Amino acid sequence: MALEKSTLEIREKLVRVETKLEGIEATMASKTDLADLRTAIAEGFTAQTKWAISTAVALAVIAFTAAKFIA
After folding, report:
1. What angle do CA 38, 43, 44 make, to 5 degrees?
2. Between vectors from CA 32 to CA 26 and to CA 35, what angle results, nearest 5°?
3. In whole angstroms, how far apart are CA 55 and each of 19, 33, 37, 45, 65?
């Protein structure tokens, strides 16, 4: 009797675990999702780097131009 009761409890717990896993599985990222995210991050990093370099060059031009007129 105790073994049958334990078996029923284990089955009930297993059903609860499977139900939770189904919910989690629905929100998990797929390999495609991760590849898309990696691409988006790389594109954002490239754009940010280009912007930072352009800004640094522009500031250098302004600084050298200002130095030319000051000296």
Report:
1. 100
2. 125
3. 53, 33, 27, 15, 15
d(CA 46, CA 53): 11
Which tokens sit at 22?
């189904």
**Whether this model's pTM surpasses 0.85:** no
Count of domains observed in the chain: 1
The pLDDT tens digits of the residues spanning 21-50 come to: 888 888 888 999 999 999 999 999 999 999
Domain residue limits at 11: 2-70
DSSP reduced 3-state for 28:
coil
Span 55-65, average pLDDT: 97
Across the range 6-21, mean pLDDT stands at 91
- Tell me how far apart the alpha carbons of residues 60 and 54 are, in angstroms, rounded to a whole number: 10
